Amino acid sequence: MKKRKVTVSIDTTYKYLQIWNGLFNLTTKELSILSKFIDIHKPTNDTNLCSVKIKKDVATSLIIEDPNTLNNYIKKFKDKKAIIKQNGVYKLNPMLNPDTDVVEITINR
Fold first, then answer.
1. Residue 94: pLDDT over 80
2. Angle of helix 70-79 relative to helix 52-61, nearest 10 degrees?
3. Domain boundaries defined on the chain
4. Beta carbons within 10 angstroms of residue 55's beta carbon
5. Is residue 78 classed exposed, middle or buried when 0-12, 13-18 and 19+ CB atoms within 10 A define those classes?
6. Neighbours of 54 (CB within 10 A)
7. How far apart are the C-alpha atoms of 82 and 16, rounded to whole Å?
8. How far apart (Å, rounded) are the C-alpha atoms in residues 27 and 46?
9. Does CATH number 2.60.40.10 belong to domain 26-96?
10. Total-model pTM
11. pLDDT per residue over 5-21, tens digit each?
12. d(Cα 59, Cα 53) in Å, to the nearest integer?
């Protein structure tokens, strides 16, 4: 079996999500919105990725008048397993954590 190594430089959360999108099948718009949730959530101490405050900040950033519009996307993220709801708190699927320094993928045939 031949081993191949590929190094990918990623400078945005959006690009990081694109790498994993084959597993989650998010649309371009969903990728954009989820990356905004992650970027806004990252510097906070909030344990909930989709808290009311973060939702308001994401809506403002994306020029969405009503933050509740984002509930449709949150449901899609949950259905596609990009986010996980545990004990009433939304968390990012650990696979999508952009703070990961190195990811190794093994493909078995």
1. yes
2. 110
3. 26-96
4. 22
5. middle
6. 21
7. 13
8. 26
9. no
10. 0.87
11. 777 778 899 999 998 99
12. 10
